Structure formats: C-alpha cells, structure tokens
Amino acid sequence: MDPLLKSVSRTFYLSIKRLPPKMRAGVAVGYLLARATDSVADASRIPHAERIATLRAMGQSIAGTAQEAPIPEAICEAADTPAEAALLTRFGDVLDALAKLPPQQATLVREVLASILQGQLWDLSFFEEHTRVLSDEQTRLYTYRVAGCVGRFWTRLGRVTLGDHFCAAEEAEEMEEAAVRYGCGLQLINILRDREEDARTRGREYLCSDAQVWMDRAERAMQDGLDYARRLRGWRVRVASMLPALLGIKTLAKLRRAKPGKRVKISRATVYSCVLCALLSPPKKQ
Q: How far is CA 150 from CA 101, 156, 259, 263, 278, in A?
C-alpha cells in the first residue's frame, strides 16, 4: 500500500510516514478509501447519477454490508491523474487491507468513511440543483462531514492504538473537539483556495457570506491544530499532527496576499521547511 499511498498524496504522505507503526496502517487505509471515494465524486465527465450510484456501492463495500463491486472502467479512466486511476482499479486491495485491520481500528475507519461519503453524496446531490450553499450552517456541516470527522477519527484511533502514549484518557474528549475544529479548518482552507475555480469551472460556491470571515475562522482552527499537536505525548504523532496546521497557516498567508484569479500553491521548499519546524517544535508543558 505504501507506493500507492505516496503516489496519490504529495504532502499528507509526509505526515503518515512519521506516525508510529501501530497507528499508521489505520490512517493509511482510511486515507486511501477517502481518496478513492473523492476521486469518484470529482470525476466530472461522468453523469451525477452514475457517480452517486458508484459512491453508494463503495459505501456498502466499505461498511461490509455488500460484496465489493468493481469501479466502472469509465470512472477509472475519468480520474484526474494516473495515480488516482490506479487507486480506483485497486479499490479491492484497499478493502482487503481494511479487513485485515484489528476490529476496533476497522470500525473507526468505517465510521469516518460513512461520514465522508455522506458529505460527498450531499455535495453531488445539492449542487445538481443549486450553484451556492444557502446558509453558513450548510458550510459548517459540509466541512464537518468531509474533514472535521477526520479529526475525531484521528484522536480515537490514536487512543485505541497508543493509549496514554497518545494523550491522557481524561483529555480525550477535549482533544477530540479541538481536532474536529482543526479538520473543519483544513477543509475551509481547501474551499478558500479553490473558491474561484469551483465557481468558474464547476458552478459551485461553498460560501454564501464574507470569505474574509471564513479565513479568520480557518486561521483560528489552525491555532487549535497547533495546540492539539503540541499536547500529544509522542513526538511522532506530534509531528504528523502539526504539519497540516503549519502548511495551512502558510496557505492562508498566501491567500490573503493573492491577486484575484491567481491560484495559490505551496512550494516543495515550503513543505520541507514546515516538516523541519514540526520536528523542532517542543511539546506543550502539561
């Protein structure tokens, strides 16, 4: 799974490979499944109805309520990159990896994928009839379903696999809530970064109020993420959890300076400087 994981993730792979081995497999399988469903949801050349049907079939396979149904060849060919196409053709291998996880870990992966799929299906169905969200609450709910839930998954998986070496039991609930805010913030950054392109090429607007207000919320969420990471007890999980926040902060700074119509991209040098910063960052004093 490692080469496949590396091929579909430029930056998140840097976090996953630094995780303790006990936690790494569950995160990797969860990421690959989410990336596979996301690739289907984004296959814009395929009709909505076919994508929705495929996502539902994938969801049943992940949940274990139905046998694996191969991803239609047309959807694999419509993937944005060759790596994503390869992931879709190997969806069965990822399901096999899910089945080999310890039961508690597999349950957590299935729970988080159920939420992610709910968000992806809402996205496809809602924007078939609308071009813009109708309320801030829809934005908040969407960011939770596709990313905030990942923060909760990450924390629960850490507790299941590492116990008190991840975080203290009495802190787990508070840490989960911080991780949810962190995950929602990361999705907000994706929305803000892609906002003009989504509106222009996909006819979708995920914000119906002032983007600057959402940018401020995302920035506060990144601070939550940094605080969350610094409170973790092992250096490996601390580095892996901190890196997305550091990259998110860099992305937000570029977004604030960017000219209209210019897509923001983080350079490889910036990515590696953030990795170094995460490695050198001390834990928060208890």
A: 18, 10, 32, 26, 20
Residues above pLDDT 90, as percent of the chain: 76
Give residue 187's pLDDT: 97
Domains of the chain, by residue range, sit at 1-126, 130-286
Cβ proximity of 109 and 33 under 8 Å: yes
Please work out, in degrees rounded to the nearest 5, the angle formed at the alpha carbon of residue 112 by the alpha carbons of 104 and 100. 40
Determine the 3-state secondary structure of 70 from DSSP: coil
Instruction: For residues 236 and 20, give the distance between their C-alpha atoms in angstroms, rounded to a whole number.
Output: 6
Task: Locate 177 and state its tokens.
Answer: 């809530």
Rounded Cα–Cα distance for residues 244 and 226 (Å): 9
Q: Closest by alpha carbon to 40, among 76, 70, 8? A: 76
The secondary structure of 208-220 as a DSSP string is: -S-HHHHHHHHHH
pLDDT digits (tens, 9 = 90+) for 138-160: 999 999 999 999 999 999 999 99
What is the C-alpha separation between 153 and 142, in angstroms, rounded? 16
Kindly report the three-state secondary structure assignment for every residue of 253-285.
HHHHHCCCCCCCCCCHHHHHHHHHHHHHCCCCC
**3-class state of residue 69 by DSSP:** coil
What radius of gyration do the chain's Cα atoms show? 18
Rounded to 10°, the helix 21-41/149-162 angle is 160
The pLDDT score that the predictor gives to residue 70 is 80
Asked whether the domain spanning 130-286 has the same topology as the one spanning 1-126, the reply is yes
Question: What does the pLDDT average to over 156-180?
Answer: 95
Beta strands in the chain (DSSP E): none
CATH number assigned to the domain covering 130-286:
1.10.600.10
Please tell me what DSSP assigns to residue 72: P
Q: What fold characterizes domain 1-126?
A: Farnesyl Diphosphate Synthase (1.10.600)
